[in-house]
Design goal:
The chain folds into two domains: 11-124 and 323-365, NAD(P)-binding Rossmann-like Domain (Rossmann fold); 144-321, NAD(P)-binding Rossmann-like Domain (Rossmann fold, 3-Layer(aba) Sandwich). It is 32% helix and 16% strand. The chain is built from twelve helices and 17 strands. Helix 2 links the parallel strand 1 and strand 2 (42-45). Residues 1-21 are annotated as: Disordered. InterPro entries: AlaDH/PNT_N, AlaDH/PNT_NAD(H)-bd, NAD(P)-bd_dom_sf. This is NAD(P) transhydrogenase subunit alpha part 1.
Length: 370
């Protein structure tokens, strides 16, 4: 193919079937495929790629995609980080978009760079107003926060709402959410809708108004750890000790504790100590959403549901994959928004690295170590 024909060829986007265990999401859904095809983009979907999210191949073909080998496409979009075998299937010069774990799995980035692949990590998209439509961390955190409350309600030995019956009145459950980013705020809102009496805590005091706007109380421990980019900074040893002391006292008064606190690239901070669990009422529940980073609870066993001191401690991994339909829909919109930023008026791939969003989300590209 000569250079002129190569330039006229439409951008091809490949959507492989996710290979990770229990990963049911898919990177693009038919509605988004239809939009991309309308821009002149060719979309190639691997057979069965959407089955985990209950999307048959026929819906993709109806949206304008073809079913075939996605790995030879100019752009390959995934949800989970690619395996070594998958990276080996990418053509040199290809572009990959997905969750790539650049801080916690640097070997993936090294492998992509060695393969000559230009890669954009969804978790590296800056949290600025213009990039909100591309913020996959937030879209998936919403799913996790919602599902965490349902898991807590399922494992609880007590009702969430107040009930008035002929046999008397049952008090509402009390729920504490530790870490009120996107997942935490969704957890507070969901627990409130289920009728629980809700309280939120975060080391960033500026989020107190957001907590109160959801009808929840704010737990003020007097510690400020506001950081950059919407994340909390790491606490000093003295601050951490004081925080744990005050949290231990507070936690024992709640029926449900949901933890979501993460520090990018580091082990999750310990917020719920073994002593705090020991002080909780029998039948209480802790749902730890930081299990993939070691957990916020000292007694967490990542990926497991255990009972310690008559308290259930659940640490589900990859909760968004348990709601693959809506999680995929939201993620696909995020990917599409990022792709739109890379395409020129004719639908050709032409990323402008003077753009802050593309510059910061690109973790490897030819001629530059990201």
């Amino acid at each position: 193919m000569n250079a002129e024909a190569e330039a006229q060829r439409p951008t091809s986007v490949g959507v492989p079937r996710e290979s990770g265990e229990d990963e049911r999401r898919v990177a693009l859904v038919p509605k988004v495929v239809e939009k991309l095809v309308g821009r002149g983009v060719q979309v190639v979907v691997e057979a069965g790629a959407g089955l985990g999210a209950l999307i048959p191949d026929e819906l993709y073909t109806a949206a304008g995609a073809s079913i075939g080998d996605p790995w030879d496409s100019e752009v390959v979009v995934k949800v989970a980080p690619p395996s070594a075998e998958e990276i080996g299937r990418l053509r040199r010069g290809a572009t990959m978009i997905g969750f790539l774990a650049p801080l916690t799995a640097p070997e993936t980035i090294v492998a992509l760079r060695s393969a000559g692949v230009q890669a954009f990590a969804m978790e590296s998209i800056p949290r600025i107003s213009r990039a909100q439509s591309m913020d996959a961390l937030s879209s998936q955190a919403n799913v996790a926060g919602y599902k965490a409350v349902l898991l807590a309600a399922d494992r609880s030995t007590r009702f969430f709402p107040m009930l008035t019956t002929a046999a008397g009145t049952v008090k509402p459950a009390t729920a504490l959410v530790l870490g009120v980013g996107v997942a935490g705020l969704q957890a507070l809102a969901t627990a409130k809708r289920l009728g629980a009496r809700t309280t939120g805590y975060d080391v960033r005091p500026e989020v107190a108004d957001q907590v109160r706007s959801l009808g929840a109380q704010w737990l003020d421990l007097g510690i400020d750890a506001a950081g950059e980019g919407g994340y909390a900074r790491e606490l000093t040893d003295d601050e951490r000790a004081e925080q744990q002391k005050r949290l231990e006292e507070a936690i024992t008064g709640f029926d449900v504790v949901i933890t979501t606190a993460l520090v990018p690239g580091r082990k999750a901070p310990t917020l719920v100590t073994a002593e705090a669990v020991r002080g909780m009422r029998p039948g209480s529940v802790v749902v730890d959403l930081a299990g993939e980073a070691g957990g916020n609870c000292e007694l967490t066993e990542p990926g497991e549901i255990v009972v310690k001191h008559d308290v259930t401690i659940a640490s589900p991994l990859n909760l968004p994959a348990t709601m693959p339909e809506h999680a995929s829909e939201l993620y696909a919109r995020n990917v599409s928004a990022l792709l739109e930023l890379m395409l020129d008026e004719d639908g050709a791939l032409a990323p402008n690295f003077d753009d802050e969003v593309l510059a910061k989300s690109c973790v490897t590209r030819e001629g530059k170590d990201a």
